[in-house]
C-alpha cells in the first residue's frame, strides 16, 4: 500500500512539473521602446533548451532579446518612437544533439551550417502613427566570423542578428 501511495504521489508531482513547464501561448515581452509578441513559440524551428525547464529557457531568451533590441533602439530612435515586433519563427544558432552516457541533457552544437534565423513582422510607431512597417526573415550565414571568441554572452548570435537589423538595415523614414 505504501508503494502504491508513493507511486501515486510521484505521478502527481511529475504531472505538476509538466504543467508548471507549460509556456504561454503567445507571450509578450516589453522593454523601453520595444514590445515583442512571440507568436506560437511551440512552432518555432529551434528554441530548444539543453538543460533547464523549457518555459524558463524561453522566458530568458525572450527577455534577453527584447532587452538587447531596446538598447539598439534607444541609440537610433527618437524618444517618442516605439518598435513592435511579432516574431513568427526562431531558429537558434547551432543544432541540438543528444548525449549518450554521463548526462541526460542534450548539447547545442554550434557550426557554420546551423546559422541563426529569425522571422517577424514589425511596426515602428511615432506616438500612435505607423511610420514604418514590414516583414523580415533575417539570417546571418557569416555568424561564426562576426563575433569574437571571447564574447560568450547568452544568445549572442540571435542578439547580434536583431541588433544589426535595427542599427543598419531598418530603413527609417526621413
Automatic annotation (TrEMBL):
Signal peptide residue numbers: 1-19
* Record key words, sorted: Signal
InterPro entries according to UniProt: DUF3016
Q: What is this protein called?
A: DUF3016 domain-containing protein
**In which organism is this protein found?**
Shewanella cyperi
Q: What is the lineage of its organism?
A: Bacteria, Pseudomonadati, Pseudomonadota, Gammaproteobacteria, Alteromonadales
Amino acid at each position: 500500500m505504501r508503494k502504491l501511495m508513493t507511486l501515486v504521489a510521484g505521478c502527481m508531482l511529475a504531472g505538476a512539473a509538466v504543467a508548471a513547464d507549460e509556456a504561454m501561448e503567445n507571450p509578450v515581452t516589453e522593454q523601453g521602446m520595444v514590445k515583442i509578441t512571440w507568436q506560437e513559440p511551440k512552432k518555432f524551428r529551434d528554441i530548444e533548451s539543453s538543460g533547464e525547464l523549457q518555459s524558463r529557457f524561453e522566458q530568458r531568451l525572450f527577455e534577453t532579446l527584447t532587452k538587447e533590441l531596446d538598447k539598439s533602439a534607444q541609440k537610433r530612435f527618437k524618444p517618442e518612437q516605439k518598435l513592435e515586433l511579432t516574431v513568427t519563427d526562431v531558429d537558434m544558432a547551432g543544432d541540438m544533439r543528444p548525449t549518450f552516457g554521463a548526462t541526460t541533457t542534450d548539447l547545442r552544437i554550434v557550426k557554420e551550417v546551423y546559422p541563426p534565423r529569425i522571422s517577424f513582422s514589425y511596426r515602428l510607431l511615432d506616438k500612435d502613427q505607423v511610420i514604418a512597417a514590414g516583414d523580415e526573415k533575417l539570417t546571418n550565414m557569416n555568424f561564426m566570423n562576426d563575433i569574437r571568441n571571447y564574447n560568450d554572452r547568452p544568445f549572442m548570435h540571435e542578439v547580434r542578428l536583431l541588433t544589426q537589423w535595427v542599427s543598419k538595415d531598418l530603413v527609417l523614414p526621413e
